[in-house]
Design goal:
The complex is a heterodimer of chains A (241) and B (282). Chain A has one domain. With 241 residues, chain A is mainly α. Chain A is elongated. Chain B is an alpha/beta fold and 282 residues long. Chain B has 10 helices and 14 strands. In chain B, helix 7 links the parallel strand 7 and strand 8. Classes of the chains: A mainly alpha (241), B alpha/beta (282).
Chain lengths: 241, 282
């Protein structure tokens, strides 16, 4: 009996068809962000939350004013506390507004996933925070370049640590309440160094700037990896298995 | 073709749905059961908002969870509580949802205009939704659900808050939409679906009780539904269903195997069956 065997070309074509149709490619962070930006646009990514962004900017300005009024030995601790303030307030307010409007279920069944939009928004919030922290550090350090880099390093480290923690909360915890608890925990965690500001300042001063920069880069890289996971796995609150 | 295969959903120790097997083709499929029976759980699983604890839901043979974006692209969903931004107009909100659903801008504009007309909101299309009544908001909800011309339309209690005129308009819209797509809607209001449902799905004790046409479901009470002047006493085993005002007197409607003398046999309707099946729950 003669069994018709496929040619090499036919085999390759079939394998590539099976791979294309059968394997679902998961978006990585940057492809998802790019795709969402092209398909939805910035205006729709921040639809209905422009008031939240305005309030977040106001809160950040007030927090910056508060840092300038601090005693020298409390200053670095204050910088660490308020550097992610735009990120914290923007994230918190947009999340709160989304839940208050009851639009989450509706968005969760749309083609573009809420987790992709959350990741995009978080990237934007952290980028804006970086942009805000640079002039803030320059003013706070009274244009003293060595002090400026030190303030900037503390600002960025603090921002990336908070952003990483928030991403982990979204990834691992199902309860929405945790997303609201984190900012308070962040503030509470800063009370301890505030009580002994001199020690905190001495610790920051003793750190080599190279070491600080390395820590900052590592935390930033971990934040990007966590955001990538968020894009691939989605927010835990939507995975109600 | 959408198939629910042996699906069970548990929340901890509580079983909301057990061993559900269903097949959905084109037409209107009405999930009819009292509150708490598991309708919303099934609806949410079909909309991928919840995942089955056991079993799977397949669309044309592929698990809807695996289909992911491809599946979400072909469904339209109206949740029980329709969320909206009160400071935006329906047109702005629909534009936003159209973008999230992946519609092209020019196609979306045309579609939004058509849908606002279809749901009777063309005169209020640019007014802020904070001024809208419950019925008007629900109509915006229906419009957004069909925005992407979905092959599967999933509606969770869509007639809540609609007045009688709007209910009729809604029934007509659903009826015409169901000609070339699957419409799955949950309700506990019998009149919403009695005339338009291709099949009615009922649950009892978190299991599937039936999935059949209105006629077949009603036939289970053929020759068992009666009406009697309410001054006459019903038998002990007779099950009282409802009361209705006649020209001269009030009549009791009831289910009976051995009706009392003077009882008049009537044709059973879906409400009779609903009240009979869920007599302990309603």
């Amino acid at each position: 009996m003669n069994i018709p065997m496929p040619t090499e070309a036919e085999k390759k074509k079939s394998v590539s068809y099976i791979k294309k149709e059968g394997l679902i490619k998961k978006d990585n962070l940057f492809s998802a962000v790019l795709r969402i930006y092209r398909a939805i646009g910035i205006k729709n990514i921040f639809f209905g939350v422009s008031d939240c962004l305005y309030i977040a900017l106001m809160i950040s300005a007030i927090a910056f004013g508060f840092t300038l009024a601090l005693e020298p030995n409390e200053f670095m601790c204050g910088v660490s506390l308020v550097s992610p303030m735009f990120f914290i307030s923007a994230q918190l307010l947009t999340m709160w507004k989304d839940s208050m409007t009851g639009t989450q279920e509706l968005k969760a069944v749309c083609k573009y996933k809420p987790s992709h939009i959350t990741a995009f928004r978080m990237l934007c919030f952290s980028s804006v925070s970086i942009l805000l922290d640079i002039p803030a550090a320059l003013i706070a350090s009274h244009f003293d370049l060595s002090e400026f880099f030190k303030v900037l390093l503390v600002s960025f480290c603090s921002l990336f640590v908070y952003a990483l923690l928030m991403t982990l909360v979204l990834l691992c915890l199902r309860s929405r309440i945790c997303e609201y608890i984190l900012p308070f925990a962040w503030t509470a965690a800063h009370v301890i160094p505030f009580l002994d500001g001199a020690k905190w300042l001495a610790m920051v001063n003793s750190l080599k700037s190279g070491f600080g920069a390395a820590v900052c880069l590592i935390v930033a890289a971990l934040y990007v990896v966590a955001l990538d996971f968020l894009v691939k796995k989605g927010e835990r609150k939507y995975a109600q298995r | 073709m959408l198939s629910v295969k042996n699906v069970t959903k548990k929340y901890g120790n509580f079983t909301a749905l057990e061993n559900i097997d269903l097949e959905f083709g084109n037409g209107v499929y009405a999930l009819l059961a009292p509150n708490g029976a598991g309708k919303t759980t099934l609806i949410k699983m079909l909309a991928t908002l919840l995942f089955p604890t056991e079993g799977e839901i397949l669309y044309n043979g592929t698990d809807i969870i695996r289909l992911d974006e491809k599946y979400r692209d072909i469904i339209g969903f109206l949740p029980q509580q329709f969320g909206y931004y009160k400071n935006y107009s329906p047109r702005q909100y629909l534009r936003y949802l159209a973008a999230l659903k992946g519609l092209e801008r020019s196609a979306a504009e045309k579609r939004i205009g058509e849908l606002l007309k279809l749901v009777g909101l063309e005169d209020n299309a640019d007014k802020k939704m904070k001024k809208f009544s419950g019925g008007m908001l629900q109509r915006v909800g229906i419009a957004q659900a069909v925005l992407n011309d979905p092959k599967i339309l999933i509606l969770d209690e869509p007639t809540a808050g609609l007045d009688p005129k709007e209910r009729v308009r809604f029934r007509n819209i659903i009826s015409s939409l169901a000609q070339d797509r699957t419409v799955i809607l949950s309700t506990h209001i019998v009149s919403d679906i009695e005339t338009i449902a291709t099949k009615v799905i009922m649950f009892k004790d978190h299991r599937l009780l039936c999935c059949s046409t209105v006629e077949k479901i009603c036939s289970m009470l053929n020759g068992k539904v009666y009406e009697l002047d309410n001054r006459m006493k019903l038998g002990e085993k007779d099950l009282f269903i409802s009361e209705r005002q006649d020209a001269n007197c009030t009549k009791n409607r009831f289910v009976s195997v051995n009706p009392p003398e003077g009882a008049e046999s009537v044709t059973p309707n879906l409400e009779d069956v609903f009240l009979y099946i869920y007599r302990e729950d309603v």
